[in-house]
Design brief:
With 344 residues, the protein is mostly helical. The chain folds into two domains: 173 residues, no CATH class; 130 residues, no CATH class. It has 19 helices and no strands. Helix 10 packs parallel to helix 15 and helix 15 packs antiparallel against helix 16. The longest helix is centred in the first third of the chain and has 24 residues. The protein starts with a helix and ends in a 5-residue tail after the last helix.
Length: 344
């Protein structure tokens, strides 16, 4: 294990102990605690090992080589970091400051338990986005802002927020699904049917990739051509199936989720749509998981809300969240595709 992995394991253990024993209210109200925790997360991101996935690509791009396909925000950050004399280190630092800080602020605001969300966050999203897909990390953190504007029906700010997210990663355009994702209670069977339908379409050989290519927009066509050689996604992998089971249970108890947090239906609808992308775009593995993870990032708030709403006894709600986080954290920490893909 690398030093970064060891540090992340200790931080996960520390947050687990706090989750089981410390007062959530005291942690929320401690400015010093929140600032220090954010700083530690940012330091872990910036000090990630060079053998991690995408490190070389970003190092190369931040030094000024290539990057033509990158979004406007990348060029701005690269220019500022280069002007200050350290394009790679400062570039990673700027991205970490934006993604980690923004996500943490909104987690603290919306979650029923701060450490519960931190455990869910560190178990997956923190590694695959904040430490690897750093452009997507900033964009997905902005999604949490967009959800607030959608809930309040502030359409102008919603569109501006989505536009800003697209400046960090073009796939943030998928946030436009918020236009049809309200806090109103739908028929539960509708979203479950969408999830089931996405798998049925896949099994009969129908995916969205070929139809997206017919749109005729050069940027989209070029993006698809970049990934047409990638292997198909495994739509029945254990993590995906686990997410689907959680999604079904949350829809069954969706009334309880709404009583705990009125925005929970928006989070749950985004979570459901995220799971549909894997079967619907399975022949484009990278795009399927990128779009899925972009919306799936709401799990850092949704999962604590769901488990806290469903289970009344503290030992059950904390036990389930800790068990889930530990399992996903183990898979994430032992996945060489994240930590050292060159050996595969």
């Amino acid at each position: 294990m690398t030093t970064t992995q060891i540090a992340l394991c200790f931080l996960f253990l520390f947050c687990s102990i706090l989750f089981l024993s410390a007062s959530d209210r005291k942690m929320r109200n401690s400015t010093l605690f929140n600032v220090l925790l954010c700083m530690v997360l940012i330091i872990i991101v910036v000090s990630r090992p060079s053998q991690m996935a995408d490190y070389d690509a970003y190092e190369y791009g931040l030094k000024g080589y290539g990057g033509e396909r990158m979004e406007p925000a990348f060029h701005i950050i690269r220019a500022i970091a280069k002007f200050l004399g350290s394009p790679v280190m400062l570039g990673f630092t700027f991205y970490a400051l934006l993604s980690v800080t923004n996500r943490y602020v909104h987690i603290k605001k919306e979650t029923p338990n701060l450490m519960a969300s931190m455990l869910v966050y560190m178990s997956y999203i923190f590694v695959v986005q904040d430490m690897i897909a750093i452009r997507a990390a900033v964009a997905s953190s902005i999604l949490l802002i967009a959800v607030n504007y959608r809930f309040n029906k502030d359409w102008l700010k919603l569109f501006i927020t989505i536009a800003i997210a697209c400046m960090f990663h073009y796939t943030a355009a998928i946030f436009l699904v918020l236009l049809v994702t309200s806090e109103n209670k739908p028929r539960k069977i509708f979203y479950l049917a969408i999830l089931l339908g996405s798998y049925v379409l896949n099994l009969v050989g129908i995916t969205l990739t070929k139809y997206i290519g017919l749109i005729g927009i050069a940027a989209i066509t070029n993006l698809l051509s970049m990934y047409d050689y990638v292997a198909e996604a495994n739509i029945f992998n254990l993590v995906q199936i686990g997410h689907i089971l959680i999604c079904i249970v949350f829809w069954i108890f969706s009334d309880r989720l709404v009583s705990l947090n009125p925005k929970s239906l928006i989070y749950l609808k985004l979570y459901t749509i995220a799971l549909c992308f894997v079967p619907l775009l399975s022949d484009m593995l990278v795009i399927a998981y990128r779009l899925s993870e972009m919306l799936l990032s709401v799990e850092v708030i949704l999962l604590p809300i769901g488990f806290y709403a469903i289970f009344k006894k503290t030992i059950l709600k904390k036990g389930v969240i800790l068990a889930y986080s530990l399992i996903i954290f183990y898979f994430t920490m032992t996945n060489l595709q994240y930590w050292n893909p060159s050996v595969l």
